[in-house]
Write a structure and sequence with these properties.
The structure is a homotetramer of 287-residue chains. Chain A is an alpha/beta fold and 287 residues long. In chain A, 32% of the residues lie in helices and 29% in strands. Chain A has two domains: 6-86, ACT domain (Alpha-Beta Plaits), CATH 3.30.70; 92-285, Rossmann fold (3-Layer(aba) Sandwich). The A-D interface holds A 40, 42-43, 198-202, 214-218, 220, 234-240, 244-246, 248, 281-285, 287 and D 40, 42-43, 198-202, 214-218, 220, 234-240, 244-246, 248, 281-285, 287.
């Protein structure tokens, strides 16, 4: 069944009395029926966050007027950060991959099943191993091999390609290259990575080997927004699986893939549903 | 650190535009600062549910006027079901137990640690096996042996005792007697049971034996409000643990206890925090 | 890294003293080094199960002599059921699918990554929805539409095709047709199904709808061998995910897919590793 | 039902062909019926581990002769490390606690329910907060306040007390003092700690605060043997619970307790069942 179109509003601001009321009244006054409202107050920082979604059918403001009116009547007076979307505005996602294909296949088969609310105009690989995977799903594949010498130039070309395609979100699906700070700063809170450990444990290379070495009984995966600090960005989703002494590093790698796929897809889904807000290097993930 | 006193309002009604707004405006108009708001719309039944909590410090209505004013200005016009509490109104809980002590001990040690926001004025046993447990924690224990012949009379005495102690919530901590419909109907959505299976699988007696017989790889526990239909009341919380062919029924029973304790405590906690609403034999459990 | 070839022996028999010793001595006497041994005694039925794996490199019996010698010296005297494999004998798997592609894609991408120790010579669909998925992975797709009228004939043709391809294992990847008893009896403990509930809860059609209706807080998936009794065969693997009142049936379906994929793949993997024995409508799944 | 008495043998040695066979033959030759056998080969270090349990009823060696005969005939020729127990030899456990009572209560109520196969002759506290808990369960409580000045002397007195009571296992049930290396070295692989994080993440003080600060979506608990390196000993058991932005540090602490209790009890249970072997700062935990 086709979902009715909705407006989705995300706001963040200093906490004070009347915030829910003011926003809700703005919507009500234009005959909007709220379908979903979740708010959160960070008591430590007196910070307020809200996600609110209402039906556009019957809503009294035309869509072009909505944002300016909201800004003037609500956001500016209350000094709110805000984002406004309609439910049919799909994030435009570029997937970056290298040679491990499980996360890429998983995202593509979810996408094909209509499970992810995103468009995927292109896939970028620093190797060509996964070109055939892209082709199977009919998605253009671009090869950008990266060396120390060419990194700056290649990233500039990548950014040009991403901009030409209107990409707003990058998903690193086991992409084995570190993006430069310059690159990352172009997409703040818009580059989603999957790290194959339970962060902050086992930062950096070969986390399953590190986990095996330490003798842990559970291994994890973490999806986070990429920042300038390696593996230290705001965490969106994490999950774990149990392991035992019977399992080798190869078993960790094999079984961990399931976890990586699921955790990354969960993060991408939440992001695509406009359910993630970043504050203070942490996330609010609305439910 | 002592928590500031709050008011907690639970509402349920037919969905329509402006509900959040109207309630939030009522609170704002009396200078209340909302600390927590969660709402839910059951799209199938067009039903609206909300839990809203605000600081009483600085709130402009005195507490005696709050309920009558809310009813007159909001609840009656909008045909809302509502419940109103202050955060220091603690549920008064009677625990019913028989001979398995793990859930009882677990609740009592949580209570002693200040983890559960309840008072426990008394414990009722249909046997005396757990009298010493009650005494260790300094809580009066009442013995009501039940037979077919005396059940009606004993339950009448139990109800009298419960009412004399202002009990509003009953927790069946592996209580091995079925309460009569008459009893249950006195405490609608106020009798919390723990069933040692993943309902609706393995209803009735000896669920771990049934699970073992079926060869399941996971066993569960379910906490639910008791209704006239055995093991069929609204589910509040469920969880599971993995098992294998190596485990006997005795292992299921031993390991299942951990699950039962945790699931029951989670349900009691949510109930005590006024986070559970019942609708259509299902629960809304606010987060 | 290529794994060294091993022999894998599965045995089942009535329990009695000396079983481990006799089998281990048979292997040792031919200079075999045991890499893995796990046994299980079902105390209720006095039944013994063992899986034992040893390196073929340096083993003193040539492979043609191994089985006959084992039978004569060990299995017959001890009245053992036995199965003997080498690690490079891969199960030949036919996947049956209908229109939901998530399990099929998942298995194919695992297969392509070398994660599953199986060959997949063909895919059968009762519809053509997933033909393109099969083609993407270069695996022959065969369309067998099933009606009441043609079912017997179509199944006969399917069996002929399976036999012509040396298929020994059938995986029902959300295949929406019930196989006839005649069909199932041709592949005892060799047809693996995924049912999208936590069996024995929610047997039959639309289990997510049933789960939603009941208001459960956890939904499950179960992979089992198919027998003549619907959804009642020996369970190989189960897992669950948490849900809440916020989720619709559509959310259950979407999120449940992850669980179905993982649980089915886990069952296929265990089967392919020759780690599953069936006894008394239950499984022993070696670790 | 009373369990039949069994012998439990744990062995560790360099891997070589014939180990299972030799041990099993030793048992069989004295008419022992193996009830349980699990072995593990650490392929990296070519190390062999086995736990084997057999019925003493009908076993042909008297118990005094068993160990010397095993040593002479098997362990010495094969250069095995070994431990031999009978199932009714219960570990003698001293619990150390400070002021958080949840793990202590949990262990004591399990003990009282007959769930843990241990004796608990005494409880030691560096404060008196939990004296009443000990007394409720009728277990002697000893108060050893620790300061920098008196630590060496107090630990010497503790060791004298432990030895006088035949204590072989120490369980640190949220004990808020670091044991000296000298103390720990007296009980190698016999001091079990619970750390309230998913190690190696959040080592040291206030791990829930660290976790909150980092914004993780899952918090953990780890039970491990104590070594000279803080929080770095061999891990016996770990588990996690999901958290969200809605939860404060206080919520982490409250909800984490359930996890700590369960993980610690699981480790103590495995230890008491003689199912844990330590090798290379990791554990083999037989199932």
């Amino acid at each position: 069944m086709p979902q009715a179109r909705t407006a989705i509003l995300l706001v963040a601001c200093a906490d004070r009395p009347g915030l829910v009321c003011t926003v809700a009244e703005f919507i009500r006054s234009h005959c909007g029926n709220i379908l979903y409202l979740e708010q959160h107050v960070d008591q430590d920082h007196r910070a307020f966050f809200m996600r609110i979604e209402w039906a556009l059918d019957g809503f009294g403001l035309d869509e072009r007027s909505l944002a300016p009116r909201f800004v003037k009547e609500v956001a500016e007076p209350l000094e709110m950060d805000w984002q406004l979307f309609t439910s049919d505005q799909r994030p435009r996602v570029a997937i970056f991959a290298t040679k491990e294909g499980h996360c890429l296949y998983d995202l593509l088969s979810r996408h094909e099943a209509g499970e992810l609310n995103v468009d995927i105009p292109l896939i970028i690989g620093n190797r060509t191993d996964l070109q055939s995977a892209a082709e199977r799903f009919g998605i253009p594949f671009h090869h950008f091999p990266i060396t120390k010498a060419n990194k700056a130039a290649q990233e500039a070309d990548e950014i040009a390609l991403l901009e030409a395609n209107g990409i707003d979100t990058i998903v690193l699906a086991r992409y084995m290259q570190i993006l430069s700070d310059a690159f990352v700063s172009r997409f703040p809170n818009r580059v989603i990575n999957i790290h194959h450990s339970f962060l902050p444990a086992f930062i950096g290379a070969k986390p399953y080997h590190q986990a095996y070495q330490r003798g842990v009984k559970i291994i994890g995966a973490t999806s986070h927004y990429v920042t300038a600090d390696l593996d230290d960005g705001p965490i969106i989703a994490q999950d774990v699986i149990s392991v035992s002494h019977r399992e080798s590093v190869a078993d960790f790698i094999r079984r961990g893939r399931d976890n990586e796929k699921t955790v990354l897809a969960r993060a991408v889904y939440a992001h695509a549903q406009r359910k993630v807000l970043v504050f203070n290097n942490k996330t609010v993930v609305f439910s």
